[in-house]
């Protein structure tokens, strides 16, 4: 947080790995996340997401609703992402975090997110989560797996 204002820096890591410290969790309240998403996440957060998911830019860019050219052109610049793209970055970070929590292993979480799942009618979770309703279904499936109600 720079100058008392939350910049969005570290949002992806927080969503993926969580936090054990209360002071860190206080930075990521829903109200603060809404505020930072409306202002736009730093472009660096998209790069952190790409590294966390281990997905090539050519695959991730369309899932986020940006062109591959824009993704590559803006690499390393300090600009903010548009609100809609910021929201999608957060959506995928939260899904990876939930999968990590369920499978207790980052490699297993990434593998599950990238493989067709019977519970999604054979769809790949990362692809299915392009829309909010699809992301909710992926979250629901992860919840069912976590509680042993896999279908």
What does this structure look like?
The structure is a single chain. The chain has one domain. α1 runs parallel beside α4 (43-53) and α4 runs parallel beside α7 (83-103). The longest helix has 21 residues, at 83-103. It starts with 10 loop residues before the first helix and ends in a 5-residue tail after the last helix. The protein is globular, with a radius of gyration of 15 Å. The protein has 151 residues and is mainly α. It contains ten helices and no strands.
Shape: globular
**Unreliable stretches:** none
Reading the helices and strands in chain order gives HHHHHHHHHH
Mean pLDDT: 88
Radius of gyration: 15 Å
Overall SS class: mainly alpha
Helix content: 55-70%
The total of beta strands comes to 0
Distance between the termini: 42 Å
Count of helical regions = 10
The structural domain count equals 1
Q: What proportion strand?
A: under 5%
Query: Main sheet?
Result: none
Short characterization:
The chain has 10 helices and no strands.
List its salient traits.
64% helix; 0% strand; mainly alpha; 151 residues
Write the layout of secondary structure elements.
Blueprint: H1 11-17, H2 22-27, H3 30-39, H4 43-53, H5 57-64, H6 68-73, H7 83-103, H8 106-113, H9 125-128, H10 132-146
Helix pairs in contact: 1-4, 1-7, 4-7, 7-8, 7-10
């Amino acid at each position: 947080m720079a100058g008392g204002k939350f910049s969005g820096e570290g949002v992806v890591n927080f969503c993926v790995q969580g936090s054990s410290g209360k002071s860190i969790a206080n930075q990521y309240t829903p109200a603060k996340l809404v505020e930072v998403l409306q202002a736009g996440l730093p472009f660096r957060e998209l790069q952190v997401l790409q590294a966390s998911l281990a997905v090539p830019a050519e695959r991730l860019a369309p899932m986020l609703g940006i062109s591959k050219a824009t993704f590559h052109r803006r690499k390393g610049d300090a600009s903010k992402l548009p609100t809609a793209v910021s929201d999608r970055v957060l959506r995928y970070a939260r899904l990876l975090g939930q999968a990590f929590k369920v499978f207790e292993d980052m490699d297993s979480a990434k593998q599950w997110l990238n493989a067709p799942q019977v519970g999604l009618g054979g769809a790949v979770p990362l692809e299915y989560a392009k829309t909010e309703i699809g992301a909710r279904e992926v979250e629901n499936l992860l919840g069912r797996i976590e509680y042993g109600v896999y279908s």
